[in-house]
Model the fold of this input.
Amino acid sequence: MDALFKEVDRIAQDKNWHMTYQISDGHYIPNSGSYFRFTDDIISYYKDADVVITHGGAGTIFKLLELRKKIIVVLNNHRVDPHQVEIVNYVNENHYGLACFELNQLETLLPLSVDFSPATYKDNPFVKAKEIIEILNIT
Done:
């Protein structure tokens, strides 16, 4: 996670951008804006943001899509599970956000995010629960 913060901080220091970082338990303290570790009200931060840069966590990404936020999804190369690649590809292929497969792409993607217009995401709720209960004969 620190690598992402360092790269965004490096890029932002040359611009007139205010960044807010959620650094969680990271060690790097950014210089280009404010930061916090944890909050019970992350949604207010999302709503205030013009663009959200995030790793490929599905819960975060789908919440941001539901909020219709501009996002840059950064592949976390330190994770070995394939869902990171799948979710970044999903966002990219459906034009829901900008995909960043390598940190060195971020410097190009950040300025592109200003004019980026994401496709509208429509949540498709899971409606098969009743059918599964019937098949499994669960009462």
Summary: Residues 2-12 form the longest helix (11 residues). Strands lie at 19-22, 33-36, 51-55, 70-74, 98-100. The mean pLDDT is 90. The chain is about 40% helix and 15% strand.
